[in-house]
Amino acid sequence: MTEKNLLTAIRDALHDEMVADERIVVLGEDVGARGGVFRLSEGWMEEFGERRVIDMPLAESAIVGVAIGMALHGLLPVAEIQFADFIHPAHDQIVSEAARIRYRSNGDFGCPLVIRAPCGGGVHGALYHSQSIEATYAHVPGIKVVMPATPADAAGLLRSALRDPDPVLFLEHKRAYRAVRGEVPDTAFTTPIGVAEVKRPGTDLTVVTYGYELHRCLEAAERLAADEGIHAEVVDVRTLAPLDVRTILDSVTRTSRALIVHEDHRSYGAGAEIAAVIAQEAFWDLDAPLVRIGGPDVPAMPFAAPLEHAFLEPEPDHIYRAMLALATA
Predict the structure, then answer these.
(1) pLDDT, tens only, 181-198
(2) Which entry of 129, 173, 215, 262 is annotated as an active-site residue?
(3) CA separation for the pair 154, 9 (Å, rounded)
(4) Which of 5, 31, 93, 169 is paired with 76 by a 20 to 30 Å CA distance?
(5) Within 10 A of 106 (CB to CB), how many other CB atoms are there?
(6) C-beta of residue 162 within 8 angstroms of C-beta of residue 114
(7) In whole angstroms, what is the distance from residue 106 CA to residue 221 CA?
(8) Is position 129 annotated as part of the catalytic site?
(9) What residue numbers bound the domain in which 291 lies?
């Protein structure tokens, strides 16, 4: 086991997979000579050559479109979108092409493609470097959507994404890149896509979350246990599509209370789907109404620090108060 931050865990896992499999190709804006805006692929162009680490033009539709062509011709492309906010020009390629290739070919063809995209706010990135995009793509059948919150999960899920025969959108919260550290096995392990994990056992309420909000929820849960003796079970979804309904329902039916937390806009977010599943499948097990916490319905995250802080409603203090109110309802 080696302690790593989230960024290093992703870098090491992808590097080792590239060494092991010559079919893997990395392409995106500035990924070659510069090593990417976060320096994840620094030095790789010299190590693997310009045919495997490819600097692309500022055209996300071309990045994903070329990657789809590579996938259809036997390569394993990893397309990097510099920031998740910039993925929208590639929406048609992702939704109309990559996600539908297996369906439209009646299962004859797959599209083994990984799209990496740094997402999320809290880094003073303002309007065009802070978006959460997971709900947009989790809504689309044919593409898997993954958002790891810990270094070990990031490494294991990335390896699984590279082995998946269909497209995977791999979302990485920028704030977690260097702030979140953890032990990572030194072996080439995998973490299954579509399987949630209970990160903190508890008996009094269930908190369902993902991404960087996991760490805020865990912090709030520890405080609540110390202050009030109330023990929250924290479930890390890890994969939004497909969603591990069984793990969520198993937890909720034991605790009889559910709080759903995410950074993305509250309306029509991933939490709405999770809440609907709980309401439909575990209604008679609930002892209190479902509670959702999410970002406000404003067009984008502001730059000014006080406004950015206001947008990031799912902070530990707010989550703590919501947990306490739900547990005592």
Answers:
(1) 999 999 999 999 999 999
(2) 129
(3) 7
(4) 5
(5) 7
(6) yes
(7) 47
(8) yes
(9) 197-327
